Amino acid sequence: MEGKQVSGDGLPANLAGMSKNQLYDIMSQMKTLIEQNQQQARQILIQNPQLTRALFQAQIMLGMVQPPQVMPNIQAGSIAASSAISAAISAAKQPGCSIIARPS
């Protein structure tokens, strides 16, 4: 199987039509391949990204993993906060600023 690519065009549709038992069987076969020949399994997955995605989708469908959650754009918010802090520090350094540090 080394060097061959699996056609991935219909993989999502094929997965959707499979029973849970069929999906578990596929996952079991992949696990067996990994246990018997980890390097070959790795090569197959690298050469066939559609298969890799399909196996991950099967894991989600079977409840083996949780689907990835969309993360809010934290970077944009932290940049804005960082800019506001920098501006406040710059303003505090100006002569005549009335910011007084209070003892804890």
Automatic annotation (TrEMBL):
Record InterPro entries: CSTF2_hinge (IPR025742)
Listed transmembrane segments: none
Gene3D superfamilies, A to Z: 1.25.40.630
Ranges for domain Cleavage stimulation factor subunit 2 hinge: 9-70
Short name of one Pfam family: CSTF2_hinge
Top-level division of the source organism's lineage: Eukaryota
Descriptive protein name: Cleavage stimulation factor subunit 2 hinge domain-containing protein
Species: Nyssa sinensis
